[in-house]
Specification:
It contains 23 helices and twelve strands. With 649 residues, it is of the alpha+beta class.
Length: 649
């Protein structure tokens, strides 16, 4: 509820703000020389009336000596001589208190005088709009959507400026600094509200209407009688409403008659209603909390209903967290909760503490205690998921990593969360996720294609040995042609595999390899060159083939050696080995043993086997080394996440 004279004060203060729409038709550079000053008695030239209210009016004047526009506030003559003189006391209080508080966010007073026209004081002419107007238009919560993000009172579309929440909070910090400045000089405003906060065109912020201010020493401005009128509490301000849960307008009027209540309901602290004489700076802290709530919530702290309900709401503790919900940061919710507490001792010590908390929020310095508590909750959940007594599933590990990630986002320097993260990343899960299997399969297919090109070289090398066979003397051209055909087919298949991505070696290819081993065995028998040929085929099959083909590859390679031995044992093929008088005798089936070509052929065969085994073995070792190096580097990088002194070896 606003007293009638309080409304008048707010009206005239608001008139200073609406001047932003008035045209400034005077040029400050109108004089030809600094010495061209009008020293006549008529110092001020009246330009227009900025606003009128119940207390008086505000005029726009031109100071002809300085060459600037000023605002002059004038009381209605009838109020100056009104019985009791309460109005003139408040008028003089506003001028003197505001004039003594030299602060960038308090409108400076230039002069106070009493002439035949009445009591007036001049002050700086300010431009802008009140915070009440800004909040009534609504704030932009998404910074990217803000229009006219800096400067001016209009957006890019030419309409009224839509302020962002962050910009208004920044302006509100200046308000709280100005109020704290006043408190340190022994002045309590007692009527802080959005209508008494002006936001200027170029970032200026002003706290207006100091007419209800209470000073540490009332001094010469308020006589004893006036001071008593202004601050004396009623004998029992709640006697008329304590017996009813629904106060009536008449009971509220009884509790707030002249002299018992100062301020604007909805922003007035409870003690201003109960004990007007005992208010201190914490009453302004309550009002700042109510304004901050309105900024964050987009609605008043106390709903604007009838005066009785508004008074009752002021005397009831507000559940700020429930009202604000997720619309504000936790530290701001906690700040508002404390600031609007009914108990004065529960509020922040002063307006400076309010400013510091909001500025810390704007600077990104969030409430560390709250963040660390939330981080610990996430870390504990992660530890529980990662150390179940039963088998930890992939889903458990995913959730654990997500929880520890949230913990580190809230508290990046927490060593316990860092250690848990490193531990999770260094200990692989028992099961392999499907996406990892897919990635490994793709990588393995690329590696097989690279190894297939080496397999093609091996088959071409085997094919190049056919001339050496001819020089030894051929006994079975069919076998030689079969070996040549199989080697050629193997080379062609390997070349095709090097250009495609295959997940396995076709069984037909391994079968043809087994036939090649069996035919090659007929040169010196299966227990010599046959075993070497089996080894030369088995190494590529094991390194190129899929893991599921390992036993299949071993079986085909072994069959190439064992099949000829079995046929010899059954008498289907003649025996190639005999032992005569301590000598091991080989009876060749495929080739003759011409002395010189035979030694050349044996040497080339050994080199071929060495070449085949070596290139696949070294390729496999290189791949293992790269993987090991990558894992070690990954582990090293993970350990660097841990704080100094927390890193393992």
């Amino acid at each position: 509820m606003e007293r009638r004279d309080d409304l008048a004060m707010a009206d005239t203060a608001h008139a200073l703000g609406v001047a932003s729409t008035a045209a400034d038709t005077h040029d400050d550079s109108g004089r030809a020389s600094p010495l061209d000053i009008d020293w006549s008695d008529a110092r001020y030239e009246r330009l227009e009336t900025l606003g009128r209210g119940g207390m008086g009016e505000v005029e726009l004047l031109r100071d002809k000596r300085i060459g600037r526009d000023v605002a002059r506030k004038r009381m209605h003559r009838e109020l100056e001589s009104a019985a009791g003189g309460v109005a003139i006391v408040r008028f003089l209080r506003e001028a003197t208190v505001q004039g003594r508080l030299e602060h960038p966010s308090i409108v400076p007073v230039y002069d106070l005088e009493r002439t035949g026209e009445g009591t007036t004081f001049t002050m700086k002419r300010i431009r802008g709009e009140t915070l009440a107007t800004v909040l009534g238009r609504g704030l932009v919560r998404d910074e990217a959507r803000a229009l006219g993000a800096s400067g001016g009172s209009t957006g890019t579309s030419g309409g009224p400026r839509k302020w962002t929440l962050r910009a208004v909070l920044g302006a509100f910090v200046q308000v709280t600094r100005a109020v704290h400045f006043a408190h340190t000089h022994g002045v309590v405003h007692r009527d802080l509200k959005p209508a008494n906060i002006m936001l200027g065109e170029f970032g200026e912020v002003y706290v207006l209407d100091w007419g209800l201010a209470k000073t540490r020493t009332e001094g010469t401005i308020d006589s004893a009688s006036f001071g008593e009128r202004l601050t004396a509490p009623p004998a029992d301000p709640y006697a008329a409403i304590s017996a009813s849960s629904a106060p009536t307008p008449s009971s509220i009027e009884a509790a707030t008659e002249a002299g018992s209540f100062l301020g604007t309901l909805g922003y007035t602290a409870p003690e201003q209603i109960i004990d007007a004489a005992g208010v201190d700076a914490r009453a302004d802290v309550y009002a700042l909390g109510a304004i901050l709530f309105e900024i964050l919530a987009g609605e008043p702290l106390h709903p604007r209903v009838n005066p009785a309900q508004l008074l009752a709401a002021t005397l009831t503790e507000v559940d700020v967290p429930a009202r604000l919900g997720e619309r504000a940061a936790p530290e701001l919710v906690e700040l508002v909760s404390r600031a609007v507490s009914i108990a004065r001792d529960a509020r922040p010590a002063d307006a400076g503490a309010v400013a510091d908390t909001i500025q810390s929020y704007l600077d990104g310095d969030r409430d560390l205690v709250l963040r660390r508590a939330l981080a610990k909750e996430h870390r504990d959940r992660a530890a529980t998921l990662a150390t179940r007594s039963d088998k930890v599933t992939l889903n458990d590990r995913k959730r654990a990593l997500a929880e520890v990630g949230r913990a580190l986002a809230l508290d990046p320097g927490d060593p316990a969360s860092m250690r848990l993260l490193v531990s999770l990343l260094e200990s692989p899960p028992n099961d392999v996720p499907d996406e990892v299997r897919s990635a490994l399969s793709s990588r393995e297919s690329v590696r097989r294609a690279a190894l297939a090109s080496r397999g093609a070289l091996s088959w071409f090398a085997a094919l190049a040995m056919v001339p050496a066979m001819v020089l030894m003397g051929v006994r079975s051209w069919a076998a030689v042609l079969g070996l040549s055909a199989i080697a050629s087919a193997g080379a062609v298949h390997a070349m095709r595999a090097s250009r495609t991505v295959e997940s396995h070696i076709p069984p037909a290819a391994m079968l043809s390899g087994a036939v090649f081993i069996a035919l090659f065995s007929s040169i010196f028998g299966p227990l010599w060159l046959g075993t070497m040929a089996a080894l030369a085929c088995l190494v590529p099959w094991l390194t190129v083939g899929a893991p599921s083909q390992r036993w299949q590859a071993i079986g085909f390679a072994a069959s190439g050696v064992l099949a000829p031995l079995a046929l010899e044992a059954l008498g289907i093929l003649p025996a190639q080995y005999t032992i005569e008088e301590g000598r091991f005798v080989i009876a060749p089936m495929l080739l003759d043993f011409a002395p010189y070509p035979t030694f050349v052929f044996l040497g080339l065969t050994c080199l071929l086997v060495f070449f085949i085994v070596a290139q696949f073995a070294t390729s496999f070792r290189d791949e293992v080394d790269r993987s090991e190096t990558s894992l070690r580097l990954l582990a090293w990088q993970l350990r660097q996440l841990a704080p100094e002194g927390e890193q393992g070896s």
